[in-house]
Design brief:
Strand order of the largest sheet: 6-7-8-3-9-10
Radius of gyration: 18 Å
Number of strands: 10
Shape: globular
Strand content: 15-25%
Structural class: alpha/beta
Oligomer: single chain
Order of helices and strands: EEEHEEHEHHHEHEHEEHH
Helix content: 25-40%
Distance between the termini: 45 Å
Largest sheet: 6 strands, mixed
């Protein structure tokens, strides 16, 4: 459970890959007990930002603040120990291990009591996995594998969960099954950052929303603004191709890209 009013925030985070900045001075806030959506097309820099938040990449500049503690540049295990769980794109499991073993691996730093409580909570959220505990992870469907990686994140009693591309490669019926679980996670007090290309899904869950394009935040506001004014979403996405070579936002007189 998170502390009341606690926030995970990025302050001016820049991330370089391959000799160029792919995340540029990004600032955003993820409040406890809410779903925050981060939208944007492929190549916007979203996954690089997640890797920096999880300690896989070291930011070239900026801070990753959990309350008043800066976690930028810390090792992944330190960040996870601080209460930030990352659900990366691509459903990364240990395929030869069983579902139960995958869950146990995620609790190796916990006491036996905390590990059992986390496992129990995860299986309450994903009861389908109870019948699959002895199955190899590679034998599961895509939807079941996504449940396992979400369960892995939750067994460690995180304060914040970062979910990169929840719906990628999943059938709509599976996505619809996961939506109420994400809502339930937030209602339990955990702050959720949901990174999605499927805007309708994310905006239906989120309180606040950001749009990222060209490595920069191009929109920051309430999710309801984007639900009620879809032209805001479209205009932010259409910045692709109009941004400068350094990823800076287009000027007001830049010619619009044809729709």
């Amino acid at each position: 459970m998170t502390g009341a009013g606690e926030t995970l925030s990025l302050e001016g985070v820049t991330v370089a890959r391959g000799g160029r900045n792919v995340v540029r001075e990004v600032s955003l806030e993820i409040p406890a007990g809410e779903v925050t959506a981060l939208l944007g097309p492929n190549g916007a820099g979203k996954s690089s930002m997640v890797l920096a938040m999880g300690g896989i990449l070291k930011p070239a500049a900026g801070k990753v603040m959990l309350g008043d503690v800066d976690l930028a540049g810390r090792r992944p295990e330190r960040i996870r120990g601080a209460g930030i769980a990352i659900v990366p794109e691509g459903r990364r499991l240990l395929p030869e291990l069983t579902v139960g073993e995958n869950l146990r691996v995620a609790t190796y730093t916990l006491t036996a009591g905390d590990a059992e409580a986390g496992r129990k909570r995860a299986l309450e959220l994903f009861p389908e996995l109870e019948k699959r505990l002895d199955y190899a992870a590679r034998s599961l469907s895509g939807g079941e594998q996504q449940m396992v990686v979400l369960a892995q994140a939750l067994v460690s009693h995180p304060r914040f969960v970062i979910i990169d591309e929840l719906s990628l490669g999943l059938a709509p019926v599976v996505v619809n099954r996961l939506v109420p679980t994400i809502r339930s996670i937030a209602e339990s007090g955990i702050g959720v950052l949901l990174i999605e290309q499927f805007a309708t899904l994310a905006l239906g869950l989120a309180n606040r929303a950001y749009i990222m394009e060209g490595g920069r935040i191009q929109f920051s506001g309430m999710a309801s603004q984007l639900r009620e004014n879809p032209e805001l979403l479209q205009s932010a996405y259409l910045l692709r191709g109009r941004n400068g070579a350094d990823g800076s936002p287009a000027t007001a007189d830049a010619a619009p890209r044809p729709a």
